[in-house]
Amino acid sequence: MNQQSSRWSTALHHLKHVLRARDALRVTTPIGGVLVPALRVGVSMAIPILLLVSLDRIDLVPFAALGSFTSLYCRVDTYSRRAWLQLLTAVGIVAGVAVGAITSAASGGDIAKVLAVAAVATAAKLFSDSLALGAPGGLMFAFAAGAAAYVPQQWSDVALHVGVAAGSAALSYALSMAGGVLHPSGPQRVATARAASAVADHLERGTPASRHHAHAAVQRAMGTLSSGRATHDQLRGHLLHARRVLHRPEPGAAATLRELAARVRRGRVPESGGPGAEVEVRSPRRPPWQAVQPHLPNAARMAVAALVSGLLVAAVHPDHAYWAVVSASSVLQATNATGTWHRALQRMCGTVAGGLITLVVFSFDPGPLVIIAVVVLAQVAAELVVMSNYALGLTFATPIALSLVALRQPGESFALVTERVGTTLVGAAIGTAVSLLLINRHIAHRLEHALLRCERAQAELRSCDPERLTPARAGLLSSVFALRDAHSLADGELWPRQKRTQEVLDTEHRAYELLAESVPVR
Description:
Oligomer: single chain
């Protein structure tokens, strides 16, 4: 009896730990990369919409808005990465619109629509995780498919609707890439500024979490730089200095780094004394299957949650069942159960707040042009605040979704808002429940492998020859990042084994101490 009671106590302890609400609604202040992307998103949406309004085709506005969601992605990626990844994103969003439009035109019933949107949500989750697409992940693919599927369409409409979405996506892509002509090193400067600020934060706080964040920020910034370009060489020099200070703090270094971050972010890159002697060693690319395989469990979660939430809502209120699928898709963009729970809290709070704002706007009985203006302005506002907290982004994103529906269904504002809030709660709850019930047991093996890899990397650095020092340091740093990622995943899962937190912290501490001892002397 005591043994059974102990098991229940342990299980409840794990559940309480996973469903912790700490930091879920914490507002952060991002460094750079906010205003310009937000304005770009607004312009990407406004141009095709205004063109359609001038042609008196307001009925096509929702499809133009769907295509413009392309600009939400790769907002601070380098232009070389953005060139191919955002193109794939545009194709994916247009494909989602096509799937939804064809499903609607084929007179697919409620079940067929849910199946189509759930399939897109699952494929988008696997795609976004495997390519490290970043926010908003696979969410907008599912939203595009759902919005198109739940618009009554004829076969003669499909090509036009998909074409409008494709044209809008192409415009968004062109505007996103145009920045490469005006400020080709903009993403690299933003990454360097964020890295310098992260190092300054660690010098002031001195916690294991701030240390890891600083190292990771420096590594990300290093990964954006190419060789042979003067500006990139200067940025690399600053990053190498920041890394040395991170290992060996100097008086006044935090203030100096914050000043550097401000200057770099404004576009003025001061002299750094060159790129430095330390060479970065990049990890080899993994085969495609190895990049996809770790993300299959989370894709399976998405498939189950999308189907259950969509079918459940369709049985009660079929008009906008895809809202439940989108809600489940949104919360499951996280990588573990704790992240899913946090996103569920954020989505519920943001949707309720956004619903109240929408009711206020609709209480003035706005016309189509005013609704369109609300859509564009709300999209810009959402992009300005979403990096601070997802709930703030949803506060403005919710009026966008409701306004696009109101263009086709005027006069149903209260019913739309209540349905949106209700389906969001259902989708978020089911997504959270699925993340708790479908436990990703592969994480245990991943954590064990990461611990062993980090120990081996430390041993290799201790015994390596001087000419192998740089690649050995790079290998150890890479293993530390992999260890922290594996532990973060494991710590947010509801599984019975020990999280091995102290062992991870001790191993990580020894690794950073060894990196500090072996840092190259200038």
